[in-house]
Amino acid sequence: MEWRDHVLPSDCLLSGRQMSALTGVDVDDGQDTDIKNTDGTVGHNCSYYATAGGVLSFTASIKVQSPATGVITEQLLAGIGEPGATVVPGLGLRMIIEPLTRPGDFPVMRVATDKYLVNVVLVIGNIPAPPDVTSWTQAASEILATLPA
What we know:
Elements: E1 3-4, H1 16-23, E2 31-36, E3 42-49, E4 58-67, H2 74-78, E5 86-87, E6 94-97, E7 108-112, E8 117-122, H3 133-146
Antiparallel strand pairs: 1-4, 2-3, 3-4, 4-8, 5-6, 6-7, 7-8
Helix pairs in contact: 1-3
């Protein structure tokens, strides 16, 4: 199954304040960004930078995707997430927190509705610690409240 990027006017579904609460560092409001992929295609996400600034201040991203055709099904959801991911029930069709199994793994949360898959990635070197389940759940709730029906 192919996923499409740039399916909403903006992928910036959390404010800087909300992302700061998740990351544990002061973060500016996100900026929608086009990114050239290694295969030459152009991807899209919302990039968040630490308020302190600097070249290495990239702290988080949100990417919103939709299936190239149709809606998100249980079959599609089955392919999302690594072995050992934490499934948090009761939010959207599925909310998962990816496991941090290798040094340098970036904290990742994914939350899906029938139309959208939202991927939140944090830069491990720029945050004090990975968020706990409660913090991820709060962010997922805020994202779901922002998504169009």
